[in-house]
Specification:
This protein is α/β, with parallel strands linked by helices. It is built from nine helices and seven strands. It has a seven-stranded mixed sheet with strand order 3-2-1-4-5-7-6, sandwiched between helices. Helix 2 runs antiparallel to helix 7, helix 3 crosses helix 4 and helix 7 packs antiparallel against helix 8. It starts with 16 loop residues before the first helix and ends with a strand.
Length: about 250
C-alpha cells in the first residue's frame, strides 16, 4: 500500500485516509452515548485527574478563545468551563453523534455560562482563519487521525503566535513492568469494558489497537516540532500510560 502519506490508525502502516476516517466515524457513532462512562471506568477514575492537568498546562485565562479539537462529548470543554471560565470555546469533532451528546450537556448547563459553540470539523482541514485562537486542546483524538502532521500544521495555523497547544493522548510506559501490564490491559481489559458498557467488543478492539500503534512520547514530540511548534514538552501521567504534550505556536 505504498504511495500514501496517510496511515491506518489501527496499525500505523500506510493506507488511504478513508480507511481510518470511515472506521472512526462508525466506531464513535456507536459509542457516543456511553463514551464518558467508558472513559471513567476503564481509567479507574484517573481520566478526571488527567483532564484537570491538561487544563492546568494549557495557559487558559478569562480572555482566552479556545479551540477544542476532536472534543467529542465535551469532556475537555466542560473541564475548562469548570476550572478556567474562558471567553469562548469552539468545540469541534469529526463525528456528529458525539457533538449531539455535548450539545445536550450544554443545554443542561455544564458549560457554566461560558459561551460554547459546536461544529463538525475535520482536524486535517479546519475552516478557521489563521491566528484565530489563543489555545488549542485535544484529548484522545490525535491517534485517530490518519494524517497527523497535517492536523498538527492546521493547529499551528489557527493558533495565534505564542498560543498554546495541549494534547492529551495514551502513550507508552517507559518502565518495562508497567509497559507489559499496560499492553495486557489494552488487549483484554479495554475490549471487556467496552462490551460491558455497550454490548459491542469490536469497536473497543480498535481503540486498543490504535493506542498500541501510536508513536511513543519522544517520537510524537519530534513530530510536533517538525510541524511548526516550539518549546515542545511532554509530561507522563499514570506511569506513562498517558502523556500530555504542550507546545507554543511560532
Amino acid at each position: 500500500m505504498g504511495g500514501y502519506s496517510t496511515i491506518d490508525t489501527a496499525t500505523g502502516r500506510e493506507a488511504p485516509a478513508h480507511v481510518s476516517e470511515e472506521r472512526v466515524k462508525a466506531v464513535f457513532t456507536e459509542i457516543a452515548e456511553q463514551y464518558e462512562q467508558f472513559n471513567h471506568a476503564s481509567s479507574f477514575g484517573q481520566d478526571r485527574r488527567w483532564l484537570e492537568r491538561l487544563v492546568g498546562l494549557a495557559n487558559i485565562t478569562g480572555t482566552s478563545r479556545v479551540l477544542d479539537v476532536a472534543g467529542g462529548t465535551g469532556e475537555v470543554t466542560f473541564a475548562i468551563c469548570r476550572l478556567r471560565h474562558p471567553a469562548h470555546i469552539m468545540l469541534t469533532d469529526y463525528t456528529p453523534a458525539m457533538l449531539e451528546v455535548a450539545e445536550r450537556r450544554i443545554q443542561a448547563g455544564e458549560n457554566r455560562s461560558v459561551p460554547v459553540d459546536t461544529m463538525v470539523v475535520d482536524a486535517q482541514d479546519m475552516p478557521f482563519d489563521d491566528d484565530s485562537f489563543d489555545v488549542v486542546t485535544m484529548a484522545y483524538g490525535i491517534r485517530n487521525i490518519p494524517d497527523r502532521p497535517r492536523a498538527l500544521r492546521e493547529i499551528a495555523r489557527v493558533l495565534k503566535p505564542g498560543g498554546t497547544v495541549a494534547i492529551l493522548e495514551f502513550s507508552t510506559p517507559p518502565l518495562l513492568p508497567c509497559r507489559l501490564f499496560y499492553r495486557a490491559y489494552l488487549k483484554w481489559g479495554i475490549p471487556a469494558w467496552g462490551e460491558h458498557f455497550t454490548g459491542k467488543r469490536d469497536d473497543f478492539v480498535y481503540l486498543s489497537q490504535s493506542i498500541q500503534a501510536f508513536p511513543r512520547q519522544q517520537e510524537f514530540a519530534q513530530m510536533m516540532a517538525s510541524c511548526g511548534f516550539q518549546d515542545v514538552k511532554y509530561e507522563n501521567l499514570s506511569f506513562g500510560a498517558v502523556a500530555i504534550h504542550t507546545a507554543t505556536a511560532c
